[in-house]
Amino acid sequence: VNNQEILQAINSNYQIYLKENVESYLEVKGKIADILVEAVKKTHELVDAFVDSLKNGIFVILTFVLTVVVVNGLKDTSASAIFSSIYIWVVIVLCLLMSIWVFSARSSSLRQFDRAFDSIEELLKQNYHGVLQSAEVDSALKPVRASNRKYLRNQSRHYLRVWLLIVALLITGFILGNLLFVHT
User: Fold this and answer.
1) DSSP letter string over 86-102?
2) Is 91 exposed, middle or buried (0-12, 13-18, 19+ CB in 10 A)?
3) What pLDDT shows up at residue 172?
């Protein structure tokens, strides 16, 4: 066996080694892409869960208004019964309690999002530390994490504004109704 054949064998083995590493690297990058796609999907599910909490809050308030207030008001056949100060306080307390629920749901969604991405980052760094450097994991995760968190924060902020507008209109409506129908 001469030196030329040894060098060719070494080069051939090195090419096989590189090919296997490149395949492993590409496979890991593909898995990271799949994990990030799943994380984006989970972010949208968090927004949907928050919106569901908001819908539930609106449903509770509207159910209260339609069943208790309107039915009792119609039963008593007077607008002053519907807009009495007792009902105003009930509406205010109910709105405050539901607002606490909605703000809590928003905060919980953001915390859940952060925990999920922390877990993904830890999982990737532990399982693929032999193939990827920590900086590569960070460069793949950080932009997706930042844009998804911004999306979640903006969507939840939008729905909070809608919630607060509904609460303000409801309370204002009862106060104006009280002023118009009870005190005139």
Assistant:
1) HHHHHHHHHHHHHHHHH
2) buried
3) 95
